[in-house]
Specification:
Blueprint: E1 32-35, H1 37-41, H2 51-63, E2 68-73, H3 86-91, E3 100-104, H4 108-116, E4 121-127, H5 130-137, H6 141-157, E5 161-167, H7 180-193, E6 197-202, H8 209-220, E7 228-232, H9 239-248, E8 253-256, H10 276-285, H11 294-308, H12 315-319
Parallel strand pairs: 1-8, 2-3, 3-4, 4-5, 5-6, 6-7, 7-8
Bound molecules: 3-hydroxy-3-methylglutaryl-coenzyme A (HMG) and magnesium ion (MG).
Amino acid sequence: MATHVKDWGSKAADGTLKDGVLVLDRLPAEVSIYEVSPRDGLQNEAAPISLEGKRELVLALIAAGLTRIELTSFVSPRWVPQLADAEELAQSLRAPSGVVLSALCPNAKGLERARAVGLSEVAVFLSSSETHNRKNTNKSIEQSLETFAEVVPAALVAGMRVRAYVSTVWGCPYEGQVDPAVSLGITRRLLELGCYQVSLGDTIGVGTPLQTRELLKTFLGEIESSKLALHFHDTRGTALANALVGLELGVCDFDASVAGVGGCPYAPGAAGNLATEDLVYMLEGMGVRSGIDLDLLIEAGRVAERVIGRRLPGKVHQAGPRILRAASVRP
Ligand code: HMG
Ligand code: MG
């Protein structure tokens, strides 16, 4: 017979939950999904993807109901050649009312490029481990923060909103364990600079639910849940379990990538973002609204697969929804 190691699921006498246990009875009514496939998804693809293909993908995502989409990166085209057409892509699309198109921005030059094409939002990024930050941006953590101390206020003055990513929070491919106090300190500084939200990244998909709970308890002890988002990679199959822990602890913002495409080019083994379809399927099954039409999202995943030209890993993308409708059966 199984032995319970901990008193999971029990309630205190006043009805409150003990110590953040998972009982699925305090899920939020709705969540916001920030779609990263056009950026995080495509940045890792070696074969060139046409501008028209990228445009088609973004339009399919908008049609599915996604209202926050990371379109591209205004990073060095030498570092990420796949996204060298950032200007052309941004100029070829007009965000419909209620849809925000954002882009990754590493420095003042990136901000200027994003501003020149009229984007209303950018996302700055750094890692909570020195080695990954250097490999990814050629800067120390402190140098990145100094750069953002100029970029974030400049973006705000220009009337833009700024989101931020902190990567390798759950672990670094070069350094292993990462001290949560370092990630928390970086997050605090990004919020003080004026970023409206910080997305905490499990860049290489090593996180497990108990680790997620402990990490989030540290963060939520001092930061409002609305200022945090979770960015999971499903490299080891734990992304949804980690997302569920986040939901239980009151985080309502999740990054995801259609059909599970993506990874960080400077984080070996970072394959596979949490697939948007997998997240939406789980949320729908639990009665949590995301505003996304799952059938149309599955169609967007097919567009991604066609445009990228290879089979993509998302589970719902491959298996379809619970009830197969004529249009969603694979030929
Ligand atoms: P650097 O080589 O140190 O840059 O790169 P530099 O400032 O010394 O400049 C060198 C050259 O790059 C100059 O050109 C600059 O003008 C140019 P040159 O004079 O030699 O002709 N340059 C730029 N060009 C276009 N746009 C720019 C730009 N900046 C400089 N913005 C840099 C430093 C940060 C630019 C570089 O390291 C870089 O672009 N890194 C980005 C790498 C990247 O995009 N990685 C993937 C995204 S992060 C991620 O995936 C994690 C995340 O998804 C969350 C998670 O999963 O945890 C966010
Ligand atoms: Mg990522």
